[in-house]
Structures are given as C-alpha cells and as structure tokens.
Amino acid sequence: MQKKELRVDELFASDPERADAVVFGRRTGPSRRGFLGGSGLAAMTAAVGGTVVFADAMPGGLMPAAFAQDTQKKDAPAAPAAAPANSSILGRFEEFWKKQRSSVIECFDCKRKQQVCGTATSTICPSCSAHIDLRDYKITSGFSRSIRTRGDVHLTGKGDLGSSSVVCRSALIEGRLRGNLHCDDTATINFAGKIPGRISARRVIVERKADIHCFRRVNAESIEIKGRMSGEIVAQTVTIQKKGALEGDVTARAISVEKGGMFSGQLIIGRADLTQGELLQEQKPDVSHVQESDFSGVTTRPLPAT
Fold first, then answer.
1. Dihedral sign (CA 68, 56, 20, 23)
2. How many C-alpha atoms does 295 have within 13 Å on its Cβ side?
C-alpha cells in the first residue's frame, strides 16, 4: 500500500495534536494547552534565532505563521510572466506609431529642417541652436503677445487676438484677428467682421458662415471661398463655391466660380511672370525682427457687402 505524504499545513489541518507530536515533539493536555519541550523547543528556537517567548503557553495544534507562509509561498501558483515590452509585434507597432506621429519642422532662423516627435512641445535647432516652439495655442479671451510656433493656433469665437504677428502651422480663426497671420499650411476663417492685417498661407478656406472684409492683401497658393469675402487676393488658384461670394481685385493663374457663386471686381489672370516664388515672397515675415503693425499709412477702401 502506497503511503500518502502530507504537507505541514495539511497535517495540521487533519490532526493538529499529531502534527504537534510529529513536528515539534509537543504533547497537549486535556485543556489543549501545551508547551514546546525538548528537541521541539530547540528546533523552534534555532529557526526563530532567539528565545521563544511564552512557548510553554502556546496553544496546542497551532501552526507557526512562518511555516504557513513558507508553505503558501511554495504552493502558490506562479504568476504568469509579463509579456516582454519589446516583443516583436509590440515593438514593431510602437516604432510604427512613433514614425507616424513624428513630423519634419523647419527652423525659423536658419531654415534647417529636422524631424521631431509629435508629442514634443519645443526643440532646439541643431544648426543654429535657436529655440523652436512646437505648442498649439487656443485663444479664448484677449491675447496680445506675438506667436511664433510650428504648432496650430485656434482663435475661438470669444477670443481677441491682438498680436502684431502670428506665425504657425495651421490656424482656425473664429474670433477677432487684429494683426498679421502667416500659416505654413492652412488658414481656416469662420468669422464675420473686418481683418486689418495681412493673411498668408499655403491654403486659405473661407467657411460658409464667414463674412470678412480684408483691408490688406491675402496671399496663398489656393483660396477656397464658401462664404462671403471682400478684399485683394493674390493666389495661384481661386475657387468660389456655390453660395460663395467674392468682391475685390484678384490676381491668379486660374479662377473657378461654381454655379450659384458670385464674383465682382477686377481680375488679372494667367500672368506668365507670376511664379510661386514671387507669389509667396510677401508671405514670410521677418520673424527675427517682429515689429508692431502700423496701419496709419494704409488707405482703406471699404467695399460694399454683397
């Protein structure tokens, strides 16, 4: 007959008195109060590393916590190993995500390009050591400091941007804009009112609810008009969508007016000498010397709203 081996905790659970006798050589009386004696006390003292206090009054059948913890530690199922952080699939996904979020930015001063992480808020140009701001700005109230960032600018409906110069990647204008605006990418205007400063961007979009009068020239590669706009435009292409209206002087390579759109004013189209370099020459302000805008010498020509 095969003998079954029991663990210490199992032996104490099935027969505490026998466990006391086998493990510690302890004999308990009728009151189930016992003591450690002889070799059992010596063994316990050696295990603890000091004198066992109140050993003679230790309840019978009591399993020492040290043994119980040791047994549980041995018998407890091993926790599943954590997946390696740089496993093949996860590592490839992380690298892919980092590449997707990175962008190439250009130094404001020396024009050197470098790649930066999409989560970065600023960086230093490795060529001229100039600081480059990468933050996005959301203007919800009055704001008068100049902005020069490779991030985006959002001027909300309650915002009042009095900065003399704003240079950014893209801009959404829903509030009052007083100064000059230059966007490397897209300037979206969803505002009704007057814009006294210059606007320059790769692409300008005048939204459906917009009704703007620009006192100074608007320079862009392409201008898309969904709402109402009046002013002077210099662009490669101008598109007036259905229900859009444009009044003013336009110099462009091509203009498209959809059915339902309206254009009135002077049109100079197809100029052979209007190259992209000449077109965008006035777009890029001298960011190293930002000066306050002066409109005293500008003669405004109010145009009737359409």
1. positive
2. 12
